[in-house]
Amino acid sequence: MSLRLTALATALMFAGAVHAADKIKVGFVSTLSGPGAGLGVDIRDGFNLAMKRLNGKLGDLPAEVLIADDQQSPDIAKQTADKFLKKDKVDFMTGIVFSNIMLAVGPTVFENKTFYISANAGPSQYAGEQCNPYFFNVAWQNDNLHEAVGKIVQDKGFKNVVIVTPNYPGGKDAVSGFKRYYKGVVAEEVYTKLGQLDYAAELAQIRNLKPDALFFFLPGGMGINFVKQFVSAGLSRDTQLFAPGFSADEDVIKAVGAPMMGMFNSSHWAHDMENAENKRFVADFEKEYKRLPSLYASQGYDAALMMDAAVRDVKGNVDDKKALQKALEAKHFKSVRGDFKFNSNHYPVQNYYLRAIGKDAQGRVTNKTMGSIFTNHADAYVAQCKMK
Amino acid sequence: MAFYRPAPYQKPLAIALLLAMLVLPNVLTAFGQEFYIGFATRILIFALAASSLNLVLGFAGMFSLGHAAFFGTGAYVAAICMANGINDALLVFPLAMGVAGLFALLVGAISLRTRGVYFIMITLAFGQMAYYLFVSARTWGGDDGLPLVGRLNLAGFSLNDDAAFFYAALASLAMSIVFLGRLADARFGRVIQAIRENETRMEALGYPVFRYRLICFALGGGLAGLAGALLANLTGLASPNLLQWMQSGTLLVMVIIGGVGYLYGGMVGALILLCLEEVLAGFTLHWHIGLGLLLLGIVMFAPKGVAALFGKQHG
Amino acid sequence: MQDEVTQLFLEQALNGLQFGLMLFLLAAGLTLVFGIMDCINLAHGSLYMVGAYLVAAAAQAADSFWSGLGAGVAGAAILGLLLELSLFRQLYKRDHLSQVLATFALILIANEAVRIIWGAQPVMLNPPDALSGPVEIVGFFYPAYRLVIIAFGLAVAGLLYLLVAKSRVGMWVRAGASNREMTEALGINVQGLFTAVFVFGAALCALAGGLLGPLLAVQVGMGESVLILAFVVIIIGGIGSIRGALVGSLIVGSVDTLGRALLPTLLRATLPADAASTLGPALASILIYLLMAGILFFKPQGLFPARA
């Protein structure tokens, strides 16, 4: 009797291992409150829009998305991720906006052998020496958009550039990314206080240096403050503004408006890209949320589509980690940015485009794609990655 | 206010609580709720941090709004030690306390010249200075913070296991509470509380008021440093966020809702605030509104804090 | 070359003045509430944020910055009145701890309420077109809108001086700041006076928020970053003193501006390049806190203590 029971139990366990899970759980931790909330909200809205398109299913299985706010604190993010991993036993994690939070949460996620699909944060650590089979980035490596700006500033023949970034590691990475492709004169690297409000002192210095182009990377509200003050100081007449896409997307444009017109920026995606997936995404997003999507929203949308395709590829058997990793690497989904591939470090190899801010046909101030900067561009750290 | 004196049933209650805590990890594991071991550890650590602030604020009457600076300093000391291969808890914890205590001694030596609101603000200023220094310190990760590789070892045992680490935090808290209780009752504690009540009089009686306050401030800073070192080990990260003034504000809120000047005030406050966060955040993303309204309610209707219900203050 | 250096210095001095006057708009209200009612109001920054949002919303609805500014300031004054009547009136009697906790709670509530009403993304607030560009003054270009802020700052300073130093209400306010019990004993309606001062402070907050909106991001959390600066100002100046708030604002504004402008260059001339590029920005960001600690070390009551 007891023997038979044991056999039955073993059979059931076996069945469980081979059979598909009956439900997919996704842990979505993002910055949904505080000054950085605009970014997290866009990723969430993009993700939710894709889930709606998929009828709430991932790979034809019913899916549950657990959403939590990290309050832009690494400490709270880590605690929440712990809960999702240990208590709710999620199958995927995603949503984190900022690299410092990603670096805090990463080790726990990887230790737990759960796949993390990053819809934004792309720290160099995880692209290089600390690359991990459980980490995928569906957006970019942090340096990429800065590299693209460096390349276009170089190609357009600017000779005398001033760089403005906050005095923190992300800012210094931006400078090194930019300088990897821009080889001209850097008249000055201005480092500002994190969260600085007033830029009058820096602007006076810039006026004095008379650069022909200015590259700035000031995340969130700092960028809004800077652009407003730059334009009202009249510097935009003699100096061309350049920024990575995240300092010049819909969230910033919405807050600054017309003064941003004429600014150049780099991105791997734009809402006016001509492909069927993107047209559908932008139309659906505008209908659902009554605003234009930002690149963050496109990344959240892609993250959901990526999970969907991978779960379908493994026929719902998400506990077979090796197979799931292969399926994620294969990337059988159509991204809204057009085609791209994953590199050996699980970061994208993709095209980067030049965008300029101007008025569209309906008179809205928004981004317009001007041409490509890089084709099939990889990041600078992949050589250091020995993926297990 | 008068001298702190515990209610008669407080000691047996505390011992019962401690015994309950000893089996908590086993109970949680038995019910498959291992996650809550980490959560409970977090409460213990914040209880320690809030208690250290309560020593400064409640017993000595020094309203510091820069206490998180010492908390964060402890976390960084632990992270820097471990990055340099020093993994022995018996070495790292005292070092974290020592460095944070010394920093507090320095801040206190300047700040304690001021009174009242000026003291609040000068401690806030020192806190912000420390925050910006760590944000700019590239060698220690700047804004990214400094990650820890694994956890400390205690007498040869690794604290990597969540339950083991829970016990380490529990022991730290219990020892600190016993220490604080003894301190409050000892001559030093009496003098400190008397200074809180009437500084001029204590000065006239010939007590070196400044020195007493300074030592108390440094002790509080040292204990906060221990809490910080523990937190860095729990989360695996020392981040400048820990030093920000909003963190000082959070510790302050814990002490106030728990009960200013009550031995268990910090503990009760940390427990209430962290549990509230956990429960409210599960309901809605807009849980801050609920928390704000609750805090307002506490100020209006339970002004002495919750621990006031358990301990009496009488002369 | 000599000319250029003088010009740069002039421009930076003007920047310092403008940044200082912008801080003064906030610090003036804060120091009054603080000094007269002896009430720590951490939510002062939230009034500034709500004011900026109200101005932005009204300016968009009316399609005019100036009417938006008027409507927003009026709205914030009404909000201030409601807050005073319902909450702050109880708080004056309580100790600093309760005030800190209650106003900390208000920050949480205000931030979340703004996010629910206006969304998580920053909103737009731009200066009137005529003021959006730079104008030429003695050989260099300066943003017209910053000149407007300077004008407003000076006007508010002048008005406050007349009100506080010359009017009867101002006399009561000064009396209240230096000795509350005595003022009450003299039969002055202190409660009404408190309400008036609080509402006035709220209106000044909204004025600051609305005026600064075109230069700064109007977003959730904008109040906290500026609140600390306002606190530094009134502590340096001495709590309760309008003159102190003005002097403190100008000191903080110019030290911060000049520090950011000159420190990196100075350090580069004296230190190796690597050390200078790390130390310069770090030192510039803590300069005003160092200044405040230094002033309090020598003058523990600030520069112009209202209560002797």
TrEMBL record, chain A:
<feature type="signal peptide">
    <location>
        <begin position="1"/>
        <end position="20"/>
    </location>
</feature>
<dbReference type="Pfam" id="PF13458">
    <property type="entry name" value="Peripla_BP_6"/>
</dbReference>
<dbReference type="InterPro" id="IPR051010">
    <property type="entry name" value="BCAA_transport"/>
</dbReference>
<protein>
    <submittedName>
        <fullName>ABC transporter substrate-binding protein</fullName>
    </submittedName>
</protein>
<dbReference type="InterPro" id="IPR028082">
    <property type="entry name" value="Peripla_BP_I"/>
</dbReference>
<keyword id="KW-0732">Signal</keyword>
<feature type="domain" description="Leucine-binding protein">
    <location>
        <begin position="23"/>
        <end position="359"/>
    </location>
</feature>
<dbReference type="InterPro" id="IPR028081">
    <property type="entry name" value="Leu-bd"/>
</dbReference>
<comment type="similarity">
    <text>Belongs to the leucine-binding protein family.</text>
</comment>
Automatic annotation (TrEMBL), chain B:
<feature type="transmembrane region" description="Helical">
    <location>
        <begin position="92"/>
        <end position="110"/>
    </location>
</feature>
<dbReference type="InterPro" id="IPR043428">
    <property type="entry name" value="LivM-like"/>
</dbReference>
<dbReference type="GO" id="GO:0005886">
    <property type="term" value="C:plasma membrane"/>
</dbReference>
<keyword id="KW-1003">Cell membrane</keyword>
<feature type="transmembrane region" description="Helical">
    <location>
        <begin position="288"/>
        <end position="310"/>
    </location>
</feature>
<protein>
    <submittedName>
        <fullName>Branched-chain amino acid ABC transporter permease</fullName>
    </submittedName>
</protein>
<dbReference type="GO" id="GO:0015658">
    <property type="term" value="F:branched-chain amino acid transmembrane transporter activity"/>
</dbReference>
<keyword id="KW-0472">Membrane</keyword>
<keyword id="KW-1133">Transmembrane helix</keyword>
<dbReference type="Pfam" id="PF02653">
    <property type="entry name" value="BPD_transp_2"/>
</dbReference>
<feature type="transmembrane region" description="Helical">
    <location>
        <begin position="164"/>
        <end position="184"/>
    </location>
</feature>
<keyword id="KW-0812">Transmembrane</keyword>
<feature type="transmembrane region" description="Helical">
    <location>
        <begin position="210"/>
        <end position="231"/>
    </location>
</feature>
<feature type="transmembrane region" description="Helical">
    <location>
        <begin position="39"/>
        <end position="61"/>
    </location>
</feature>
<dbReference type="InterPro" id="IPR001851">
    <property type="entry name" value="ABC_transp_permease"/>
</dbReference>
<feature type="transmembrane region" description="Helical">
    <location>
        <begin position="251"/>
        <end position="276"/>
    </location>
</feature>
<feature type="transmembrane region" description="Helical">
    <location>
        <begin position="68"/>
        <end position="86"/>
    </location>
</feature>
<feature type="transmembrane region" description="Helical">
    <location>
        <begin position="117"/>
        <end position="134"/>
    </location>
</feature>
